[in-house]
Amino acid sequence: MGAENNESLDLLSVFLTGIPGLEAQHGWLSIPFFIMYMIAIAGNSLIMAAVWANSALHEPMYLFLSMLAISEVGVSVSTLPTVMGILWFDAYRIDFAGCLAQMFFIHTFSGMESGVLLAMSYDRFVAIYNPLRYTAILTLPRIISMGLGITLKSVALMAPLPILLKQLPYCHINILSHSYCLHSDLIQLPCADTRLNSILGLAIVLATFGLDSLLIVVSYGLILYTVMGIASGEGRRKALNTCVSHICAVLIYYVPMIGVSVMHRVAKHASPVVHTLMSSIYLFVPPVLNPIIYSVKTRPIQQGIASLFSRKKGLF
């Protein structure tokens, strides 16, 4: 039975969905999607390059920012082939192994993004609560260890998902509801009991996004408590101002995710276009907006990016 199942999986195709009802406009729709991808990949790549090329940016805050940029590039690159393939070439078909690989990378990089946002909230708490020992607490080896821990946690949690899905039998037309492969979509396809997959998926969501968001809220509760203890109003304002970019990044990441969850429960009969667009927002919007926000709000990042271009001019 296992050999037969593996053989059938090798031949199994999965069919993705574009934007329902707007198939005739895919050519035009590809323009804003392509622009978003270019902004996300180029913007986050610039931040990574600026941080690594400029020794003045080798501080905890900016090293965590470069980790966030890596995870966001990963999310964008993971969805780009199938989304643009559908919009440009009407390429709706994807083989099952490729779909499982895409699902793994999307969820892994998304989990890393959540973990890095939590690490950044800890960074802001240490910077405000104990500024004199900030660099002594967040040393480079400790930051690297945190980055590796976030990566290994995300990989370890997501690895069982494709393995379990591969063991199940598939015996009907396999059509997904998005332009990319997600676990919540794939567990609807097998003609077998998927309760174990559903329970594991819920446990992973709680262990990553649920726990991370709770700890971020706790971190900001401690930050506010610390800020309220600062005597001068100017000191309180400066302390909170250092958190603005991170707060925006957290809201941009978690609000669309919560919105999608609410939509699936309270607006099941809404237009398929609305569901598709809402489900895409939480994957596409954070990688586009975060590099813009950090570039606008953070002067050292502006200077780092400017120095990259000035170096390039000097080479010609």
TrEMBL record:
It is found in: Cell membrane; Membrane. One of its GO terms (cellular component) is plasma membrane. Keywords: Cell membrane, G-protein coupled receptor, Membrane, Olfaction, Receptor, Sensory transduction, Transducer, Transmembrane, Transmembrane helix. GO terms for biological process: cellular response to lipid. The chain crosses the membrane at residues 31-52, 64-89, 101-122, 143-165, 199-227, 239-261, 273-293. The keyword Ribonucleoprotein does not apply. This is Olfactory receptor. The gene is LOC100770665.
